[in-house]
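To whoever is on call:

I kicked off a structure prediction for a single chain this morning and the downstream step that reads the tokens threw a length-mismatch warning. I double-checked the sequence; it's 423 residues and nothing unusual in it as far as I can see. Pasting both halves so you can look.
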Amino acid sequence: LAQGISGSRNRKPAAVENMSHRKFERPRHGSLGFLPRKRTRHHHGKIKSFPKDDESKPPHFTAFMTFKAGMTHIVRDVDKPGSKLHKKEVVEPVTILEAPPMVVVGFVGYVETPRGLRALTSVWAGHLSEECKRRFYKNWHNSKQKAFTKYQKRWQEAGKDGTPMAAEVERAKKYCQVIRAICHTQVGKVKLGQKKAHLKEIQVNGGTTEKKVDFVMGLFEQEVKVDSVFSQDEMIDTIGVSKGRGFEGVVTRWGVTRLVRKSHRGLRKVACIGSWHPARVQFQVPRSGQNGYGHRTEINKKIYRIGKSIKDDPNNAVTENDLTEKAITPMGGFSHYGEVTNEFVMLKGTTPGIRKRLVTLRKSLLPQVSRKAVEKISLKFIDTSSKFGHGRFQTSEEKAKFFGGAVTKKAKTEAKAEEKAEA
């Protein structure tokens, strides 16, 4: 028996004999989930899936287009019974997204087939704005600008007899299962220096197909505001394009370890790019190339506030605890963006992409029931100090009061005005 045991000890399984040996285990560097790491074709973000439809709810939009303005921070009390942070103040970073109202200019009806959705029919509004028409041209001022002129004529003629485009609308109501509204941004309201609107199909969920079509038709050429799509404390997803960083090496692009200081011919490299056979470089091996500017969908962002435009509420950054009269735009404006004058959405944390870039907000695909999702947010303070420098003051009045001179200057101007009035 003893002899048998010693014999089995010395004998190794066949697989172990052929295996190479490494001293330490380690996970691979960089995710393979984002391959190929090249520049995206969808520069304005693509909504790849919409939330599941529920006929029992009234018709509603499932997404909205916004523009990234910049970041700031807020102070709030945490409401999490049982947590060490409960009833304590926390400072959190937030992203401000400017959200001028979208305009509905049409809809597309889809039929469900075994191979997925198939577009059956589309109906456009009778009048399209110039910024929407510009989207259909490469060079607007050199073109004849004839887009949709014939369609407009058809619309007007049909309008005399009865409802315009009645045949297509009836087809959509009869055969379609999915209705997506064609919406465009009002890019002129955001000071980007751009005149061409962004066009997107946004799915309408809730109600029967008939109700959906009527809902969209009722909104033709109308503005849709962000507060009619989303509400405060809602968990949403952001879709955008990450910041482009150009051609970069393996250490930055994949996070591989640098080689030792004395290594030959550089050290920010991958030492072995594969075995002799297979006699080609495999796709999993980190290589240098394009970094960033990839399409990204980030889920579970919480809305901390949906602010009104400056016109409706000039002091849209006031909270219950901080009654200083101020707007959301920080002193000196958001760096490389400017002032936020339209409605805005305040999201917790970061969003992909650079300022001025289009960020699409979409309703969550999952039912949100976690403690984080259902927590009610009440802000105590929103920071509006300058984002360029150290930012000591929240408003220009506060700065003038600190440095002085403002009061005497005001008195002088008032005295001058009185002298003029007397003269």
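Update from on-call: the warning came from a stale cache, not from the record. Cleared it. Sanity check on the structure: The two ends are 125 Å apart (CA to CA).
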